[in-house]
Amino acid sequence: MKDVIRPVDPATLKSLTPSIRTFELKEECGINNLPNQIMAKAISDGFVFNILCVGETACGKSSLLDSLFNTRLDSTPSTHDIPRVFLRKNTYDLFEREIRLKLTVVETAGFGDQINKDDSFKVIGDFIDSQFQSHLDEELKIKRNLANYHDTRIHVCLYFISPTGHSLKALDLVTMKHLDSKVNIIPIIAKSDTISKPELQRFKQNILNELNTAGVKIYRFPTDDETLAEENLKANNLLPLAVVGSNETVKVGNQYVRARQYPWGVVQG
Ligand code: GTP
Ligand code: MG
């Protein structure tokens, strides 16, 4: 015999659910409100950004990060006698107005200081792989908790090139080649205030030629979205980026700016 589904008598329903909860709409509900809802959620969740800084000791990694985020992040200067390259990892909660950024900074320590540099790049590659592995492990759990999981996979690697004015060192090429399939690499010429403008142009060209010859893939800002294409094309033409970092504030005109003061003038970071 087939089961017969009969409508429930309203009186019985009321006795079963004596207090029916009703919700009042606080704001307009519809497709046109979706962007606002997405924005509200993004603001309440905050953003996560993980940066890896690779570069020789004292090339200006910490100073540049301080300048980029306009703050003073914890940094311990490395000495030149560290026997093996290792990575320093710190996580910060930064706020700009009400927007929260969970920033993780990973810096190399002792990079380029050893006589035998054979495995300097390996430590960095292994670190990036281990972040992928921990994310995969979390995803594969039966009871995964990705909402609360702190994703430490690296979004970008800032690769600091020493401002020699000539070309890349063998260690730079080997390291970038090892990392380019694992992470987005943005090559950066550190302490660019130490090179003159014509020298800088030649230096940039030499670096690009060497990267091309070695088949190293660097990050290119996307140009397929037409709203950003023009800006991103300009940014791509500036690669490798020439940067200046500073933790000093200098008075220029009637305002204080983050800059480096020299006898001949001020370089703004
Ligand atoms: P470690 O973490 O010890 O490897 O050093 P780092 O790469 O973080 O360098 P840090 O930012 O500590 O800077 C080292 C020195 O370089 C400091 O004396 C800075 O003032 C100086 N410095 C940093 N950025 C620049 C720059 O753009 N130009 C010049 N001329 N000096 C800089
Ligand atoms: Mg540092």
UniProtKB/TrEMBL annotation:
InterPro entries (UniProt xref): G_SEPTIN_dom, P-loop_NTPase, Septin
Any Pfam family the entry gives: Septin
Keywords linked to the UniProt accession: GTP-binding, Nucleotide-binding
Sequence ranges assigned to domain Septin-type G in this UniProt record: 45-269
Keyword Phosphoprotein: no
GO MF term set: GTP binding
PROSITE patterns on file: G_SEPTIN (PS51719)
SUPFAM superfamilies reported for this sequence: P-loop containing nucleoside triphosphate hydrolases
Name of this chain's protein: Septin-type G domain-containing protein
Organism of origin: Rotaria socialis
